[in-house]
Write a structure and sequence with these properties.
heterodimer, A: globular, B: alpha/beta, Rossmann fold, six-stranded mixed β-sheet, globular, binds adenosine-5'-diphosphate, binds magnesium ion
């Protein structure tokens, strides 16, 4: 059964890649854009190298985490919206695989594409600054990033459920993108925030992911951060799963 | 194995909002189903017949676990649609829209393989099954063309192929022939008949009477959320006391004359007319019995409902 779900996850991801690459300019979206963004980010962030390497790393990681957060939180919802308009949602809802796998697979596809670009763009910088150790650091950072995807997916589920239930994508999305950007806490120093916003930033997974990656790369103690992140993953997944399940049920009561 | 589909007193009410001003809206309750019951046996094609808005799609969605009924319950393959949705989903193949529901930029083949994988088939099996079904529904030639280029008839057949990917024992087809040209529609009906001969149970909705008459073993006529009458197309005609028209053409002094009579018992009347003719020493050229069509049934039933 578990292999079955994994097989389905793989099928979902390949299908998503196939669909995107067939859209006009889709291939560009998949291949060129992420590298362009990652490269651009590295370029901008490199101005900070004049300050310290730490600041550079901080900026670069911050942008990466922010991008992935936006993807992880929005892709599932946008996908649901499109599936609904295309008359496919009903068939996904009644497939034995289940919406969780389908939504995760779709989000993961976009994430992997972007992580690939960021990884390539960050390789030279890390190598120049940390040598071979930088590669190991990078591998560990990616692992942390992977864990960080799960709480983000939990939030993505809530938003997907809201969009399905309220039958609106644009309004919700337009609100969510700027809020996420502000609350990510990963592209500016958090201490400038009023305490109550800061606390909100701390309990959201964007900052947790960013901060543990940053600490890992700059070589400071971070085990408690990893534990935090894992806890966060469990909590947000439970929360997201429960809320999504309820919204889906509500949707099935109110009419598909 | 019992019955394939059992619905008991299904009720569904939708809340909708009517626009009555720039921002103002009025809440309206729509009684989509007011207690619908029916059964479909194995190897049977059951036709759910009704005008637009009668509640056919609502019934289909409840059976397919897409909607939760407000009252009543339904068992599909013996499983409760609300309490055991997963088991129900594995038992049914569904056709909802004849013209959409696939990825437009993927080919028919890619679409089928993908949906097969969502149903838990491994890649090889899904591919083999997709080829096999594309052959059966007559899309082998077009299998690698993108879905967006498919005609309506091709789309409808692809939708049926998808419903068959995981080889479910029950098929639920919501107006699978709507908008199709007569030839494509007939192909779809032939396919449905073939599948039921293999022992599958089929629920087939339509607002087209003669079509249901042609393909279905039993028919339920639904109107305004209630089952109005149920039985074989023949039974329904009998129940409503619809008359057959018996015509006997005879030759009278070199020209044709028609003896005509409306009746409930066509065989008896035919015999009577022929005997009369022969008693008068007339030659019978041709006899014809016109069955009442379900069309008439439908008009009567729906009218008497006051809709
Ligand atoms: N999601 C929904 N929200 C509000 N009203 C609905 C919804 N779905 C169906 N209805 C209404 O319920 C009634 C039955 O619809 P439906 O089952 O689609 O009819 P049919 O398929 O027989 O044409 C119609 O009046 C329709 O407008
Ligand atoms: Mg309908």
């Amino acid at each position: 059964m578990r292999v079955g779900k994994l097989g389905a996850l793989y099928a979902v991801m390949i299908n998503e890649l196939r669909i995107i690459s067939r859209e006009p300019g889709g291939l560009a979206l998949l291949v060129i854009l992420p590298y362009f963004i990652a490269g651009g980010t590295a370029f901008i962030a490199s101005f900070f190298t004049r300050v310290t390497v730490g600041t550079f790393t901080r900026q670069f990681l911050g942008f990466e985490v922010l991008m992935l957060s936006l993807i992880m939180v929005q892709v599932g919802a946008r996908f649901l919206w499109e599936e609904r308009n295309g008359g496919r949602l009903e068939f996904l809802l009644i497939s034995p695989v289940g919406m969780y796998v389908i939504l995760f697979g779709t989000s993961l596809t976009m994430v992997l594409v972007n992580v690939g670009a960021f990884t390539v763009a960050s390789l030279p910088v890390l190598y120049l600054n940390y040598g071979f150790v930088g590669m190991v650091k990078l591998a560990l950072a990616l692992l942390l990033l992977f864990i960080g995807l799960f709480p983000l997916y939990g939030i993505g589920l809530i938003i997907a459920g809201l969009i399905m239930r309220f039958n609106d994508a644009n309004a919700v999305m337009n609100i969510i993108a700027p809020i996420l950007t502000i609350l990510s806490g990963s592209t500016y120093p958090v201490y400038v925030l009023p305490w109550w916003v800061r606390d909100l930033v701390y309990i959201l997974p964007m900052y947790q992911t960013f901060y543990s990656m940053y600490m890992e790369i700059t070589g400071r103690a971070y085990v408690h951060l990893v534990i935090n992140l894992i806890l966060s993953a469990v909590i947000y997944l439970l929360l997201g799963g429960t809320i999504y399940a309820n919204l889906e049920k509500d949707f099935r009561k109110k009419g598909v | 194995m019992g019955v394939a589909i059992e619905a008991y007193g299904l009720r569904k009410r939708f809340i909708s909002y009517e626009r009555v001003g720039f921002l103002k809206r009025r809440r309206v309750t729509i009684e989509a189903l007011r207690g619908v019951s029916f059964r479909v046996g194995w190897g049977e094609v059951y036709g759910l017949l009704g005008p637009n808005g009668a509640g056919k799609t609502t019934t289909v969605k409840i059976l397919a676990t897409l909607l939760i009924p407000d009252g009543g319950y339904a068992l599909v393959n013996g499983y409760d649609t609300v309490k055991q949705p997963q088991a129900v989903r594995r038992s049914i193949g569904l056709v909802l829209y004849p013209d959409k529901g696939f990825y437009s930029r993927l080919s028919g083949y890619e679409n089928l393989v993908y949906f097969g994988r969502l149903y838990g088939l491994d890649k090889r099996t899904a591919q083999a099954r997709a080829r096999e079904l594309l052959e059966i529904v007559g899309l082998r030639e077009a299998m690698d063309r993108p879905y967006e280029e498919y005609s309506l008839g091709m789309r409808a057949r692809l939708a049926i192929a998808r419903a068959l990917m995981h080889d479910p024992p029950i098929l639920i087809l919501d107006e699978p022939t709507i908008g199709l040209d007569p030839l494509s529609a007939r192909e779809v009906r032939e396919l449905v008949r073939k599948l039921s001969k293999e022992g599958k149970a089929v629920l087939f909705t339509s607002h087209n009477l003669w079509e249901v008459e042609e393909v279905c073993d039993r028919v339920g006529i639904i109107n305004n959320g209630s089952m109005v009458i149920e039985g074989s197309p023949r039974d329904i005609k009998d129940m409503l006391g619809l008359k057959y028209v018996v015509e006997v053409e005879v030759l009278v002094n070199g020209h044709v004359e028609v003896l005509r009579e409306e009746t409930l018992t066509p065989v008896h009347t035919l015999r009577k007319l022929i005997n009369e003719a022969e008693a008068r020493g007339l030659n019978v050229i041709r006899v014809r019995i016109n069955e009442p069509s379900l069309e008439e049934v439908f008009v009567r039933v729906v009218r008497s409902e006051g809709r």
